């Protein structure tokens, strides 16, 4: 009985213990479910609004869509600038632990191993090697150093650009590197398919698609593509996954800008200018070609140049639009403007005669010099021989107020208005003294840009109408709406049709025998032009003895001008005269451009009737004066004076102060050596003689077999050299 009672009690105790344990387990489950229920209520009810917003921010995003930058086209719709989609490369650096993180983890593991008395196995060193290898591969793919790449990736950020708008080669190299966390995003990149062509006009855009220089900067607002946002989902790494609907890309594309530039004429101009700079071993070159009837700029070139696809690889000076922003004293190319002003005021006629004073003229304590002694000259011959003294005497009749008024009327001292950045206004000080009046009359003591010279000559070529120059003819948005259309606009009438025609007739003599620009004469088209060889201002005061700006500007065909071309060569060294170093480039541009425009050739007369009559009267006057001089014995050496040649005034604007040393005879008439012409063709012989400032006389045909004077003979510039061909 006792045993049975004990057994029953044990069973009862065991059952009670089980019940207690079950109760405790049940209570635990109840408490657990209660906590979960309370947490669920907190999440689903109490915190639901805040958590829903946070969740949506993690997976839902506004994806920004960027439109492409608009195109820039030439007048025939050839592309100068366009945008193309390329890959930009990014990386999540968190997937590659930083050097500091790996070293910290390795130090912690080492301490734990040492505390347990175990040997530490450097497990993190493998990750370090993997990181270093990834950095090395990325650096090699992008052409940078491992140290720079390491600094770029040593960050807590989860997104870092490796390369914006990468090249195809860079993308392929990065993909081959096979580094974790690397991704690719399509972005629009500005592309200039013509490379250096018209680069100074176009400028360039930066990596974010903003215009930095040139027309890209001026018209940035209309060229820049629009932006829009769409709703979408992103994955755990923040990359776009799904978008709600699509946006037509053309609705976001920027407007297209059409230029007045003709890419064919632009190419001809750049090629001829580069050749002229190379031949003259010059510092730089500038050229402008415009249509005088409309004011449209057909070409604008500079040397040195640059590639707008990679502007950072070029020096800042190579990116400067010299033809527009550089203002310098242009020299004798201003003489036709002075003559036009005096003609318009009725103060002179083409056959008016002025005394050249044998190349030296006193104004107070100053002396004005010509490169060659001249006696009596008509206005036409003053232009032909580029006489400083002759133009000075014309300016004295004109007076200070009227000279400056006409200079301003022709556009000097004001911005041309092309909207290009940094447009030069030029310097046009009032000529307060007689010597200032003299120097400004032949283009020194005032500064202008090459573009301003072209615009002023355009007025002479267009019957006295100064046209507003322009570069952009149309702007059309992506949907075809016309935003801008420009038409030719007359700024003002500066001289009469008659005056403009008289000046052009006189300028034709410049490319004829005895003129300073014979190298620009064309067989198929009449040319009216003017050369210039200006001394550059010395920063230390006065004028440089060695640095020149050689220029040549004119109109073709002169009987009905279709083109105005202005060429300037800065600091030439092989030869300093505009009629030698710049005139050949003028001729090459003119020939190619006129053929391209389909201008029919015509018979070229030696000179117009007005100029011929004036020259004939001048010859009679000089004959009479020479007879009187011989009787008086004053000009015993007159027979040795050479005719004007290509040298266009050695010291154009050479003003000698009282007390300064007088220029030697060699300054007044420089000498040159006769080149060896044996075996040359007629074309090559003429080119060689013109380059040496000599007057060719040819007989026969074939190859050169004889010449007089002989090769190496020292003669005055402008001397005649007879070449016999067989």
Question: Features of this protein?
Answer:
seven-stranded mixed sheet, 29 strands, Beta-lactamase, 37% helix, single chain, alpha+beta, Alpha-Beta Plaits, 726 residues
Give the % helix. 25-40%
Compute the average pLDDT: 80
Q: What fold name stands as the CATH topology of the largest domain? A: Beta-lactamase
Can you tell me the CATH superfamily of the largest domain? DD-peptidase/beta-lactamase superfamily
Please summarize the sheet with the most strands.
Answer: 7 strands, mixed
Q: Which consecutive residue ranges, at least 5 long each, have pLDDT under 50?
A: 242-247, 606-653, 657-669
Beta content: 15-25%
Summing up helix and strand content along with how strands pair, one would put the structural category as: alpha+beta
Level-1 CATH class name of the largest domain: Alpha Beta
Distance between the termini: 159 Å
Task: Please report the total strand number as a whole number.
Answer: 29
Assign an overall shape.
elongated
Q: Tell me the CATH architecture of the largest domain.
A: 3-Layer(aba) Sandwich
- Domain unit count: 4
- Rounded to an integer in angstroms, the radius of gyration calculated over CA atoms is 40 Å
Tell me what the structure shows.
The strands form nine sheets. Strands 2, 3, 4, 5, 10, 18 and 19 form a seven-stranded mixed β-sheet that branches. Helix content is 37%, strand content 22%. It folds into four domains: 2-46; 62-198 and 226-254, Alpha-Beta Plaits, CATH 3.30.70.2110; 263-630, Beta-lactamase, CATH 3.40.710.10; 670-726, Trypsin Inhibitor V, Chain A (2-Layer Sandwich), CATH 3.30.10.20. The longest helix is centred in the N-terminal third of the chain and has 45 residues, at 2-46. The protein has 726 residues and is of the alpha+beta class. The protein is built from 23 helices and 29 strands. A hairpin with a 5-residue loop joins strand 6 (204-205) and strand 7.
């Amino acid at each position: 009985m006792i045993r049975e009672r004990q057994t029953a009690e044990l069973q009862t105790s065991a059952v009670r213990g089980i019940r207690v344990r079950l109760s405790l387990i049940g209570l635990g489950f109840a408490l657990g479910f209660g906590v979960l229920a309370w947490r669920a209520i907190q999440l689903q009810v109490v915190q639901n609004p805040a958590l829903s917003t946070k969740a949506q921010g993690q997976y839902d995003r506004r994806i920004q869509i960027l439109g492409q930058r608009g195109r820039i086209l030439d007048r025939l719709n050839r592309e100068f600038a366009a945008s193309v989609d390329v890959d930009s490369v990014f990386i999540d650096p968190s997937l590659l632990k930083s050097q500091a993180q790996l070293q910290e983890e390795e130090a912690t593991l080492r301490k734990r191993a040492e505390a347990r008395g175990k040997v530490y196995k450097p497990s993190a060193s493998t990750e370090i090697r993997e990181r270093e290898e990834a950095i090395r591969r990325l650096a090699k793919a992008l052409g940078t150093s491992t140290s720079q790449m390491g600094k770029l990736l040593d960050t807590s950020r989860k997104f870092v650009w490796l390369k914006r708008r990468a090249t195809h080669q860079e993308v392929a190299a990065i993909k081959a590197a096979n580094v974790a966390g690397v991704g690719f995003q399509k972005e629009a990149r500005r592309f200039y398919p013509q490379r250096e062509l018209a680069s100074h006009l176009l400028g360039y855009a930066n990596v974010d698609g903003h215009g930095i220089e040139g027309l890209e900067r001026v018209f940035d607002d209309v060229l820049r593509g629009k932006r829009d946002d769409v709703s979408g989902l992103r994955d755990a790494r923040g990359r776009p996954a799904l978008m709600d609907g699509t946006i037509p890309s053309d609705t976001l594309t920027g407007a297209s800008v059409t230029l007045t530039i003709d890419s064919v004429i632009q190419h001809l101009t750049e090629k001829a200018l580069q050749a002229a700079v190379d031949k003259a071993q010059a510092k730089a070159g500038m050229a402008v070609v415009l249509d005088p009837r409309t004011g449209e700029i057909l070409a604008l070139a500079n040397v040195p140049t640059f590639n707008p696809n990679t502007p950072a690889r070029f020096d800042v000076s190579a990116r400067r639009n010299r033809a527009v922003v550089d203002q310098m004293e242009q020299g004798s190319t201003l003489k036709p403007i002075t003559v036009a002003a005096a003609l318009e005021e009725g103060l002179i006629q083409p056959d008016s005669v002025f005394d050249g004073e044998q190349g030296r003229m006193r104004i107070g304590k100053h002396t004005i010099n010509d490169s060659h002694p001249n006696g009596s000259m008509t206005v036409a011959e003053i232009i032909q021989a580029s006489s400083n003294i002759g133009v000075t005497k014309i300016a004295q009749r004109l007076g200070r107020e009227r000279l400056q008024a006409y200079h301003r009327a022709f556009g000097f001292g004001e911005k041309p208005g092309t909207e290009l950045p940094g447009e030069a206004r030029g310097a046009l000080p009032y000529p307060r003294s007689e010597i200032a009046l003299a120097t400004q009359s032949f283009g020194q003591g005032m500064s202008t840009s090459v573009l301003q010279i072209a615009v002023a000559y355009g007025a002479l070529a267009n019957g006295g109408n100064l046209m507003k120059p322009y570069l952009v003819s149309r702007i059309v948005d992506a949907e075809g709406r016309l935003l801008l259309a420009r038409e030719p606009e007359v700024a003002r009438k500066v001289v009469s049709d008659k005056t403009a025609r008289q000046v052009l007739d006189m300028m034709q003599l410049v490319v004829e025998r005895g003129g300073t620009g014979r190298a620009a004469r064309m067989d198929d088209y009449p040319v009216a032009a003017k050369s210039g060889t200006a001394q550059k201002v010395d920063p230390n005061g006065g004028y440089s003895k060695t640095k020149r700006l050689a220029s040549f500007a004119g109109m073709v065909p002169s009987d009905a001008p279709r083109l105005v071309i202005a060429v300037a060569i800065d600091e030439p060294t092989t030869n300093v005269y505009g009629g030698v170093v710049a005139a050949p480039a003028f001729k090459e541009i003119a020939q190619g451009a006129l053929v391209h425009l389909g201008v029919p050739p015509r018979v070229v007369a030696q000179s117009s009737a007005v100029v011929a009559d004036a020259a004939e009267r001048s010859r009679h006057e000089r004959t009479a004066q020479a007879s009187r001089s011989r009787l008086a014995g004053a000009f015993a050496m007159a027979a040795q004076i050479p005719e004007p040649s290509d040298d266009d005034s050695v010291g154009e604007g050479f003003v000698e102060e009282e007390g300064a040393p007088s220029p030697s005879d060699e300054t007044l008439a420089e000498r040159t050596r006769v080149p060896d012409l044996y075996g040359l063709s007629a074309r090559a012989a003429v080119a060689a003689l013109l380059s040496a400032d000599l007057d060719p006389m040819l007989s026969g045909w074939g190859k050169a077999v004889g010449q007089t004077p002989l090769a190496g003979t020292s003669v005055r510039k402008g001397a005649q050299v007879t070449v016999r061909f067989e």
